[in-house]
């Protein structure tokens, strides 16, 4: 089964998660999501695979951009939140590792071991 990591090489947690996968003899497909943003449909799939109830759970809510765009507004629906991630991929929490129909956010990196 193909394992994918949505990776930001500048992020220490993302680098640590990739190193952990490689230490476990897993060579994941590396998706540089900042250079190749995910589509709305891909993000909807990630929400399902992560088993989360809101896109906010996979957003960097402490990021200044999150605050400046007022994304904590409860009036925003899921599609609006996901469209914002499409337009601003930096808001996507990282890293995210996908293994088939399951996904996990690598914070801390050891979290991803639960889906391998």
Structure description:
The structure is a single chain. By secondary structure, this protein is α+β, with helices and mostly antiparallel strands. It has one domain: Glutaredoxin, CATH 3.40.30. The protein is built from four helices and four strands, in the order βαβαααββ. The chain has helices at residues 12-23, 40-50, 64-68, 78-87, and strands at 3-6, 29-31, 96-99, 102-105. The chain has a four-stranded mixed β-sheet with strand order 2-1-3-4, covered by helices on one side. The longest helix is centred in the first third of the chain and has 12 residues, at 12-23. GO terms for molecular function: arsenate reductase (glutaredoxin) activity.
Give me the side-by-side strand order of the main sheet.
2-1-3-4
Structural class, from helix and strand content?
alpha+beta
* End-to-end CA span: 10 Å
Report the CATH architecture: 3-Layer(aba) Sandwich
Q: Quaternary state, please? A: single chain
- Number of DSSP-assigned strands: 4
Summarize the structure.
Keywords: Oxidoreductase. This protein is of the alpha+beta class and 116 residues long.
């Amino acid at each position: 089964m193909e394992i994918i990591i949505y990776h930001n090489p500048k992020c220490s947690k993302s680098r640590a998660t990739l190193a952990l996968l490689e230490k476990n003899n897993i060579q994941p497909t590396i998706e540089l999501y900042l250079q190749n943003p995910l589509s709305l449909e891909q993000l909807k799939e990630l929400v399902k695979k992560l088993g989360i109830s809101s896109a906010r759970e996979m957003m960097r809510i402490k990021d200044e951009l999150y605050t400046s765009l007022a994304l904590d507004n409860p009036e925003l629906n899921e599609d609006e939140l996901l469209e914002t991630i499409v337009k601003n991929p930096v808001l996507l929490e990282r890293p995210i590792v996908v293994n088939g129909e399951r996904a996990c956010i690598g914070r801390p990196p050891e979290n991803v071991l639960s889906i391998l």
